[in-house]
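Human: I wish I could look at a protein chain and see how it folds. This is the protein in question:
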Amino acid sequence: MKILLLNHTDTGGGAAIAAERLFTALRQNNINAIFGVLEKKTLDTSIIVLKKNSFIEHYLIYRIIKKILNIFISIKRNIYKNDFKTSNPILHSTNKKTLIDIDYINNADYDLIHLHWINKDMISIEDIKKINKPIVWTMHDCWIFCGAEHYPNVLENDTRFIEGYNKKNKPKTTFGPDICRKTWERKKKSWKNINFNFISPSNYEKEAFKKSALFKNFQNNCTVISNIIPENIFRPINNKILKELYQIPFDKKVIGFGAIEIETRKKSIKGEYLLFDSLKKIHNKSDYHIVIFGDNNNLFSNELQIPIFSTGSISNPHILAGIYNLCDVFVCPSLLENLPNVCIESLFCGIPIAAFNTGGIPDIVEHKETGYLAECFDTEDLFRGICYCIDNYDKLSHNALIKARKDFNNNDIIQKHIDLYKSVLKK
């Protein structure tokens, strides 16, 4: 059994990390797996860069031409003011081009192709069906059953992916060409006879998939299998040494969360602005310390007036595990998530999680057992959740470790993947 895993890149996002970890686990279990990417960012020699489409012989020239065309398109949009605009802050992908060589995949000796995040024109909507091998596709977000958007607009209760996209149900806050509807129609036309097998990392994603207009007749083609988190790396560590190393006072309540982009994306799906509003409710600021997993933001520093330690970009998972262990609570303020790696990593480190009761997060956070699930999108309740996790750290930390080892056991997850591969190949 030879498996080709495909993802746009090998690091730099949740899907890339999940795909790389699965690739590593498969090889450790003696499965002949190859990880192919369009853009390689790491030095891992076991990961291959896929051959480019034969029609794009010179990829660099193609990129230059594309940038020039984008300049002309931008000028045209400014003149005619008819470009696509939406209040949904999430990434939108149309996948009109195929940058990899499908013939190479079809002619190679792979038995099964496992697709992950293939957007940014890695494979076009129309060309996916040209792959003549059995396909397993992990849904790292909602793009597969939505239009061009990677998540529906939860703030507007957007249900177009359930109803089907038409001119009458176009959101009032969407202007210009309806690329979501046009992309959805292309999927409907191109994928009507497909026989793919889908993996959903969360129960939320599976239920959304089953309700979708595109895949409502594919009830038996979706299996829930969680992402792999390296248990030997993400684990409890004595934080006394770590706090000395990072100069964080032992008597402070430490709140951790991911990178923030308040100034540039006030309505980001990651919910930074909701987190900011929650943290402003802290009165006894001298009792707290903040750890940001990523770069700091001046708005946080200037207005919160709470000491901040920002890690900058972290590529080493061992260092990342240490950062989790600095915290008394990890906050995930996202408006919608599939199955966020950061929350499961936090769970394995025994760190309670405060988050909104949305998407696949309830698969990880059990309310007042492993963390706190706040009402969507109540910043007052999220603040109560942060305080609850800190005040009940010992109980929640103990429960978090039990849940991590029970529900996200690496051996179980990898075996589910292998069993699915065998089942697909048998069919």
